[in-house]
């Protein structure tokens, strides 16, 4: 039996059990878990009802199940079967039921009802008492699989918030209903020695502090729970608080529930889930796929736990490509393609009893040559492979904005291919002084952004966000800028990162603004970013070359008023801050954090798309062109 409670948070559940408000759940193990896919990757999905329900049913994320919104026209992709469909295929005579409160959910079960996989589907239309009654009837009638969904806590949280008497009352009533359902399963098992019930209680999505399902990739929205009447070997974190950082994704996920249910029902492994059966003695977590530095390979990595005695098998699109020694946690898959382009693959990893899949995409690039013309018009060049960060051309300085707030360190993986691989600069805005000043600042001997004699200029650099683009939430994070970014209309320019790893290019005059938005970064991967400003032609062009999303470009028109104010505050270009060095101090809803930079360069001309593409394709530093 699977019980989903919309609006019940992990913290609230633990509080209710500890306070004796949920006596029927005392025998369950409770662990924090997560939903929403991985931010900035192909699996990212909204942390709301529809996508979460589809992930529960299919063991996959939205890029597979196809449900992206909470609208009645959404349907689960026919190529991604639910656990009802798979269980029915394995045992066509088994009777299965679904009883739901949320009016949205029956539409996502319609295909299983039509096929006969679900024998009884009850839409209780927001009546949780109906859910209790009909689900209990299904349990006592001998159903093999029962899915029950309650919604009263979500309704109360949305109306009154999490710290309200109405929410507490809804939680208490739901705890009593769930306790009654569990008791009915226990009663049936005591009457039939052949019965062996697995009971899972979970939530479809997390809530923010206001009781809202905002859909964002914040930790509170991603945090759910998985409670069970059985000890599950591969469920970590039992009895622990939910992590507030990336450690959350090292725990069980909502995509683990479908394979766990099917293993209990005796369905043989081999399905295409993005989670694992939690009964497995081997745990397989944190599957990631990133494009290799050569732009022609995909680097897979994962975490293993538990029984590590079995070899690791790697399958690409269902065909085995490698068998690796036991305990291996990384594999580089060389891609062979006829031409440049974006290619998609489906990888499956098998280690002992654990099996999990993930989607990968690569902007494949055949070997290329770094354009020698990139030497022309180069005014400033910081390789960023050593500290202090010197300008090879001696025409600028790059240092912390405040001597007592040096957030700069070197990281070893700069994204370049051998023999050019060296180090890169990490600027951490969490390192700040007493005033809140942070970031690095580039000061040019002659500022090309403000010099009226310069008719065009280009700013280009490699950048890598953290694993979730966390600084891009709420009010965005400044990647590079020379303006006060409280408003895009303020004088100067900025490149910023926002929710879902969106990159934006902006310029302002002090009263008007020009924007080019909608570029996307892949979280935790090196991308090449360039801003090309044609003052004479009154045009700003943005370029983002991403190893997964490929080449992205766009432009916007400028005015003479804007081009006259591109120098911004006149005190340099900041890295991981705006021109004041106090952006994160003023906008605390945008978290401070680390951004990695490499090969920062400025030109006093407009680079061409081909020149910029050659930087990305070759993965070579500009220093390889300089004698």
From TrEMBL:
Pfam families: Laminin_G_3 (PF13385). Signal peptide: none annotated. It comes from the Bacteria. Gene3D superfamilies: 2.60.120.200, Alkaline Phosphatase, subunit A, Immunoglobulins. InterPro entries: Alkaline_phosphatase_core_sf (IPR017850), ConA-like_dom_sf (IPR013320), Ig-like_fold (IPR013783). This is LamG domain-containing protein.
